[in-house]
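Hi there,

I know you've been waiting on this one. I reran it after we fixed the sequence typo, so this is the corrected version. Both the input and the resulting structure follow.
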Amino acid sequence: MKKKEIKLKVNGRTHTLEIYPWKTLAEVLRDELHLLGTKIGCDKGECGACTVIMDGRAVPSCSILALSAEGKQILTIEGLEKSGKLDPIQQAFIDCGAVQCGFCTPGFIMTAYAFLRANSKPTRDEIMEAISGNLCRCTGYKKIVDAIELAAERYGH
């Protein structure tokens, strides 16, 4: 099968790529655009490690064909930092010690980022519900929830 040309808008930049039609968005982000913050965990859309924001929604990029992402606005963990300054959600994860091995962290951060855009004053229960699709093998999730609460305060919505 032949490669197809697509244009992906990632982190505010448009990229023209030639890819095989069966490539997932996660594979293209990592292998073609070298955005390694997007992790591939289960490769079935169940663990949340590959979460990116597409048109404002948190989505599992391992379950989306890159071809279907054409024309969409895609935001990865690398796109949160602005002018050398971390986004408040990224800083909150550091400040709360919500990072252990770090493999799942980008997915949690992207899920939390989208969630806090929709719910600026969440309860702990709402946060836990929002991140229920993200799995971490290192923590009991307390520090992750603490970080999301702190980020909500810092966003000051």
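Quick highlight: The CA atoms of residues 52 and 110 lie 6 Å apart.

Best,
R. S.
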